[in-house]
Design goal:
This protein has about 1000 residues and is α/β, with parallel strands linked by helices. The protein has three domains: about 325 residues, Rossmann fold, CATH 3.40.50.1440; about 230 residues, no CATH class; about 150 residues, no CATH class. Helix 7 crosses helix 8 and helix 10 packs across helix 29. The two termini are about 75 Å apart.
Amino acid sequence: MPRRKIAKTLLVGLGGTGNLALKYAKKRFHEMYGAGKSYDDFDLPLIQYLALDTDIADLKKGIGLNIKKEILKTNECIHLKVSQPSQVLSGNPYIEREWMPKKNVARLDAIEAGAGQIRGFGRLGLMANFGKIKTAVQSKINKLNSWENDHNSDFEATDEAINVVFCFSVSGGTGSGTFIDMAYLVKDCLSDSSIDFTSQAYIILPEIFDKVIKESIGKKRIWSNSYGALRELEFFMEGKYNKNIELLGDNKMTIPVKGAPFNLVHLISDKNTDGTDYTEIQHMMELIGSSVVFKSGDLATAGKSGWDNIERDLSMIEYLDDNNTQMPRYLGLGYAEIQYNTSLVSEVTSCNLSAKLSDLIIDSNNRETDVSIEQRVIVWGIKEDLADELLEQLLPINSYRNYVVEGDGYEGSDTRSILEANAEAHLMNEIHQLKNKSSDNLKDLQDRLIKQIIDDIIHVEGCILNKGGIVTAINAIDRLLSEPFIARYASQMHDEIENNFSGLGNGVKHYINTTRKRIAEELSSLSNAQDTMIFVKRANCMPVIESLITSYNNLIMYNADLIKREDAKQFYAKLSTDLEITKQKLVTMKFELQKCKTNFLKKEGKIKDNIKNESRKPFTIELHKKKIESANYIDENSVQLSLFLKSMKINLSDFINMNSTEITENIKLFISGTLTIEDIKAENLTTYLEKLEDKDVEGIFKKLKKMSLPLQSIVKDKFHMKMEDPDGGGNSWTETSLWGIATKKKEVYKLIGSHIETEPKILETGDHSFVMSSTLYYPAPALSLTNIQRYYDAYLNKRSKVSFDTDRRIREAMDDANFDLIPKDVADTKTLFAWIFGLVLYKLTDKEDGIYRKGAGRFLIKSKTASRADKHWLDLDTAWRNDAFAKFSDLNLDLEMLVKINDYITNNGVEKITEIIEEIKHDYSSKYISDYSALNRSWDDLKSSNDSRSEDVMEMMNMEIDFISTLSIESINDYL
């Protein structure tokens, strides 16, 4: 079977949405390539995952009903934890001084359970864990680069290039606060390698969160965060920020900025271009996960040319949108599939076949031979007829210490008493130690080895029960207990203790007694020797001493032999007892299987009920439902019992302690792993389609094509572009698509090219369980997003106590460039024009009209709405510029002020106004700020202030100055 090609891919998930998308992608990879392995055991080295989140609970959470299932591994996650952020800021003043928005500093608290929808906090979490993140990124890149196409592997890399995929939402704090830094951090790590790479982002827009989040506080910042994030993204994508990103200054933590952060960007909304709504986060995650998997897996090679054309086409754009502000670069992603849910079909199938398979579980007549049992015995290490395998596990040869005398052992007339006392003490101590060692080893063997033996019979994969069924397992136990196995081994231990040790004709007990007698005789001889005359005493004692030492050491050895044989008898006795217990469990299990047969058919009705209540996925056509609803769709004659036995994939030992109800459920699982069910998984969708009329299949394929329209809701009238076209002319909206089908050999799939799409890009997947369609619509600028005005309005809410930006330097760069995602609406800027020229009017009318500030106090405006007693000066009741402007707008005072400005120009001519415009544009610091703005503090004082309200004033002043820089006498007419 040819190896499957996988693109080397690094998947990076940022924030809760990002790490969730990675889990769904990993789940789909397992579904596609798991080949029967459990989720925990499945590993695809060509795919590397890295999830970053400030919320540890989100990182640990699974995506199924059982939260322990379908999770990321520890080395695939990094918790962006900042336990004491105030200490981080105080120890690194550069952060607050240079990039952290001051509005957010006062709200900063421990970052452990999320970033609180504040983008700057998510970024601080990244900064505090920067070293750990960079090391993890580099490690995963190294793993991908070091992959070599092993011919023994089921997979091979499509090529050397690395595909980097980012998944995140721009609505919260973590994903939208870290994506720019992470994009460039990954690029920096990859730049150290000569390997080519591409980077793309899957970005979830806020609409889906607006649907699913019920509490208003939970979606308080989703629109404003999204605008802030998209504004930064577009700024970097256009290459307008060409400085390196410094997080700590002095090059302590610098991220090089080179080129655009991503090659391709998918903006994903809550409905597709046909208007189909997505109302559940998990459905969007399923769609994104499936799209990522197919573009990294089977479809990567065939789809590469189509997807790569996007960048080429973008380079051919002749002009930008009408306002010349944005490149139409953002892609709409679509994915849909026809699915035959084989797990459900196989469950129904199992209910019809389980009765027969129950008989096979009871007995498949695959008996264990004496040779195979002996091979198991050798592996277990309990064989004792020709080798001391068990004895050596109880007491290895060097388990005791020999008795050794001090010096030559001669002590004159006290030689016997001293030697006997020391030797006996050493003997007793060694026997005690040997008993303890053997007892400990016996307990270990009883706990561990007996469990292994039982497991090999009924528990582990490849066990006797799994291989041959209950009757075979019982038969094996009976034979294992008898000759020539355990019965012989236990008998041999008894014989060596009592009758025939090491073939010497007597048992080990005999040799212990004989050695004891020898020691008694030698001690008596030693007494006689030490009583001889002094001149010959030593010479007489020495041979006896040497003989005694040998005898005592032999006695230690024989006691060791006795101890381990007695313990071996205990082991065999315990093993025999446990095997008898296991045999009785098997007998009980056999009885329970007879009862459970009647339960299987009842499950079919329950399965059908569950299907009716299943939540429909908006990107899936589920053809298996009709199949399951069919009356007689199982052909029992096509299922051979031998195939089920051959393809068993579960361990039958789990049935040992189950009642009939539990056995019923597990037999269903057992059948689902058979070759018959695998054949159903591989063939049933194609078979189903082939049985339909062509017109019905065409209808299904057309529906699939429609469902795969991109999840991007835009207003096409908001942008216009031309793209070079081989046929001439231009397109404002370009589509590319890719189909994945089981095989081109089947006529049913040829209908796609003949009736659904002209010259479609098609890849054979070899999988008969699904057909997929994936589309990209491109390109579109961010300004064409349906709700972009709502994003913009929320972002511009200057009264917010939270900044929606991540870096004041980036925000200032965008403000200096007068950069925004959507063209400024004249109606929105009229208020600002009225405010600015209301301040100017105060000077022009010699303080008789307009807007002014009373010293360091509050702002006032001349208005007919104010009382005559106040000389028609309306107190705006605030000394803060931004609040005064907000009240000016809320009270619609701009309309009255515009009339006054128009009257002044009409009465005095345009020359004076033109002169003022040129003066303040030429030198705003001396003219507008000093002469007109009513700013009572210096610019430097505002910059150095730690008061967040001063930052609001600076933002307001920057907005006024930016507006003035675009003014001309001609543009004034637009506002009057």
